[in-house]
Amino acid sequence: MNRRQQQRLLARTLFFILFIVAPPLNIFRFDLTLNHFILFSQPWTLGLEAFQSGDVTPLQAGLNIILRGFFPLALVVGVGGWVSWRWGRLYCGWLCPHFSVVEIINSLMRRASGKLSVWDRNQLPQQQSDGKHIVPDGSWWFVTALAAVAFAFLWAVALLTYLLPPAEIYANLWNASLTRNQGIFLTVATIVLTVEFTFARHLFCRYGCA
């Protein structure tokens, strides 16, 4: 692994950790119980409550919607589009938490089958570009499957904490007292993500993201 690859690995690892801890640290999430975003522990609303209570004029309410809603969205889309145009898939290769999982599953699947995907027809050369020699070993299939399920569950939990209070979700998990809806969400999301990580992770990157 050369220096650039080490830097990419470090960047992706740190961003993946940020993806997981952002909701518990109230860095960014949408709270369905409060019906608004939370950004750096501060409520991020459109300010419509003040308009409904008569504290601001319709003009002020309209400006709030533009400044707090449309402007941030346009800024994110614009900056993201410019970065993609200027530096290509910078986010995918250096930051994307999904691609972090993709590369881990790729590595494990290569050890298990000599291929990066179950859809590949031919095995890759056992001699890698960095000189490392990998001989396919079927015993790695168990590790590959376990990793796919584990990452799928971790992703499912993280996604749920972006929508509901993280303290509640983690406490319910620890005490095995998830609500019915929480349990359904985690079960369905884990199954869907397991299938995606195992069979369609490259398709998502190619068609769903890029």
What does this molecule look like?
- Helix content is 65%, strand content 5%.
- It has 210 residues and is mainly alpha-helical.
- Helix 6 packs across helix 8.
- The chain has a domain at 3-27 and 96-209.
- It is built from eight helices and three strands; from the N terminus they run H-E-E-E-H-H-H-H-H-H-H.
- Strand 2 (36-39) and strand 3 (42-44) form a beta hairpin.
Write the layout of secondary structure elements.
Layout: H1 3-21, E1 28-31, E2 36-39, E3 42-44, H2 48-52, H3 58-87, H4 90-94, H5 97-113, H6 140-161, H7 166-174, H8 180-209
Antiparallel strand pairs: 1-2, 2-3
Percentage of residues in DSSP E strands: 5-15%
Number of strands: 3
- Mean pLDDT over all positions: 86
Order of strands, widest sheet: 1-2-3
Oligomer: single chain
Which descriptor suits the 3D outline?
globular
Low-confidence stretches: none
Number of helices: 8
Describe this protein with a few key phrases.
mainly alpha; 3-stranded antiparallel beta sheet; globular
Question: How is this structure best summarized?
Answer:
The protein is 65% helix and 5% strand. It contains eight helices and three strands, in the order αβββααααααα.
